[in-house]
Structure formats: structure tokens, C-alpha cells
Amino acid sequence: MEPLSAEQLKWVAQRTLDRSFQKGESIYTPGDASEVVYLLLTGRVRLYGMVREQDLTFDVIRAGDVFGEASLTEQTQNEHAQALEASQVGMLELNTFWHLVRENATFNARVIRMLGERSRLARGRMIDIALKDSPARLAALILDLVQSEGVVTREGHYRVSTHYTHENLAKMIGLKRVAVTRAFGRLQESGYVQLRRRQIYVTDLAALKGLAAEN
């Protein structure tokens, strides 16, 4: 999912009310009035909810991402938003947001693609949770992370630029941490991925895609 460009981010940030959040601080919770749309300026934010009494991460928001889109159609938020690290968030009043959408066609198109991709990923995660075993779920998640923040290395491998703990990964795919540890070990033994300096490297993309497609 491609965030807003640096130029677009600067353009929108000039029109927001900014607020800083510390690591672990809540930005909003389900039931909060949805009166603004949020733009992450710096840091990382986790969107999550409770599914079958389990904490499940829906998405990890990076700088340049818009979130809190329930404001566009609902009167209250329907998820939790929590700062994963010190973060600066811009808040756009709804009237301002719609004005920006009308004023800048490029911003409009980028936001539509961003929100559409987030919806697609969320649906895919829920299907994976319902149908796939642990290694296939983890493989699908790693592929999503490669698509959203992957960097090609000199060896032609893919590196996930953010450090994710096994607990972080588990909360994204509805598993216990120990299950993710076992599944990641299996992927490593098979030569699909490596862990170097606490970052995930995909060393066999085709095989990982094949595993992710299994039910």
C-alpha cells in the first residue's frame, strides 16, 4: 500500500491540527466520536480490534497513511488506534478533508487507492484466519509486508524494513506467539526466509507464494 508522497504529505500537513502520541498511547477507541480523519506524519500506529476475545491487528500504519476512515461513513470509530512508537498525527476535520479531496485530484486518487488496498488486505487476512494453517498464514502475511514495505537487497532478496516481533506478527494473523515462532522456524528450515539483525529477509519468494496459497 503506497503512502502519500513527501510532497503530498507536506501539502496536507499544512492543513491539519497536529498532535503527538507516546509509544503505547491510544489515539482512539471503538465508540469514540468520529469527527476527523487522521494522517500519520511520523511514527507507526497499530489498528486493532477484538475478534473472538483475541487481540487482532488489522493494519500497521506508516508515515503518509490516512486512517480513521470510519469518520467518512459512521458517527463513531469501530477499532482501536494505538501508537507503536512516538508518533505525530495530523487531524483533518471532515469539511477540510472533503475540500482537499475536491481540490487535489492526485490526493483524491491516492487516498482512494490506499483505503481500497487496506480493505482488500483486511478481507484477505480474515479469509486466511478462517481457512489456512499457521505456516500458510504467516507466509501470506510476510508477502503483504514485502509488498507494503519490502526493500530489494543486493542479493536480489527482499527485506521487510520494519522490525516485527513474533508477538506483533501473531496479532496480525490470529495466532499465539509460540505458534508463530514454530511457523517461522519451519519457513527458515525450508529456506524461504531468514532473520538477520531482527529483520525478515525473503530468500525464496516463489516458494513463499506457493505456501501462502495453500489452504
Q: Can you walk me through this structure?
A:
The chain is α+β, with helices and mostly antiparallel strands and 215 residues long. The chain has two domains: 6-127, Jelly Rolls; 132-212, Orthogonal Bundle (Arc Repressor Mutant, subunit A). The protein has seven helices and twelve strands. It has a four-stranded antiparallel β-sheet. A four-stranded antiparallel β-sheet has the order 2-7-4-5. The longest helix has 27 residues, at 105-131. It is globular, with a radius of gyration of 18 Å.
Helix content: 40-55%
User: How many strand elements?
Assistant: 12
- The number of distinct structural domains comes to 2
Mean pLDDT: 88
Give me the strand/helix succession: HEEEEEEEEHHHEEHHEEH
Short description:
The chain is an alpha+beta fold and 215 residues long. The protein has helices at residues 6-13, 94-103, 105-131, 134-149, 166-173, 177-189, 205-212; strands at 17-21, 26-28, 36-42, 44-51, 54-62, 66-67, 80-83, 87-93, 150-152, 158-160, 193-196, 199-202. β4 (44-51) and β5 (54-62) form a beta hairpin.
Task: Map the helices and strands.
Elements: H1 6-13, E1 17-21, E2 26-28, E3 36-42, E4 44-51, E5 54-62, E6 66-67, E7 80-83, E8 87-93, H2 94-103, H3 105-131, H4 134-149, E9 150-152, E10 158-160, H5 166-173, H6 177-189, E11 193-196, E12 199-202, H7 205-212
Antiparallel strand pairs: 1-8, 2-7, 3-6, 3-8, 4-5, 4-7, 9-10, 10-12, 11-12
